[in-house]
Amino acid sequence: MLILASGSPRRKELLAMVGRTYQCIPSDADETVPEGMEPQDIPEFLAVKKAAAVLEKYPEDMVLGADTIVELDGQVLGKPENEADAARMLRMLSGNTHMVYTGVALLSKAEETHFTTVTKVEFYPLSEDEIQAYIATGEPMDKAGAYGIQGKGALLVKRIHGDYYTVMGLPVGEVERHLRRLEEQIQ
User: Fold this and answer.
1) 48-70 pLDDT, tens per residue?
2) For residue 105, pLDDT beyond 90
3) CB-count exposure of residue 43 (10 Å: 0-12, 13-18, 19+)
4) Which residue of 117, 131, 136, 160 shows the fewest CB atoms closer than 10 Å?
5) Which residues, 6 or more positions from 154, have their beta carbon under 8 angstroms from its beta carbon?
6) C-alpha distances in angstroms, 125 versus 42, 70, 129, 137?
7) Domain 2-186, what fold?
């Protein structure tokens, strides 16, 4: 059985979209990151921690953990703490290109693989009115970098270079290829 170690509605939606049967068991792993870790290494580190915490309780299964961060000029933009924090992040992203990293871990007692995908995202210059209107939708509040590309946040994005699904939080094409390879090795 495949277990998704996440409560993310987007990750659930993406796995369902590609026809994967899975059970959702959100991880309770400590998401503390070692001091000085490079931004591009954080998502994979956290994905492994999340998957390992669930695998400990379900050792007979394959566990999928994932984590996504937004990085601009070396600064990690996580989920906003409040509306003011969301506005601060959106002002930073306005007119700039940032990186979105999604780390993925696939763990079982027999096999383990983990990787990170990256996508460059360029934002349009945003007016204060656009920022406030977007925040008023509530959409930014549970998303890294304070935006969701799959929702109204799409209106903020000028272009991307890389995998769209990395920005959504799960690079399903690459995940599926890894799952198939692991499933073949297990059989």
Assistant:
1) 999 999 999 999 999 999 999 99
2) yes
3) buried
4) 136
5) none
6) 28, 18, 12, 19
7) Maf protein (3.90.950)
Share of the chain above pLDDT 70, in %: 99
- Strand runs (DSSP E) across 10-111, as ranges? 23-24, 62-72, 75-77, 97-107
Any idea which residues carry the catalytic annotation?
67
The pTM (predicted TM-score) of the whole model is 0.94
Do 80 and 95 contact (CB within 8 A), yes or no? Answer: no
Domain boundaries, the chain: 2-186
Q: 49 with 84: CB under 8 angstroms? A: no
- Taking alpha carbons only, the member of 104, 95, 73, 92 closest to residue 145 is 92
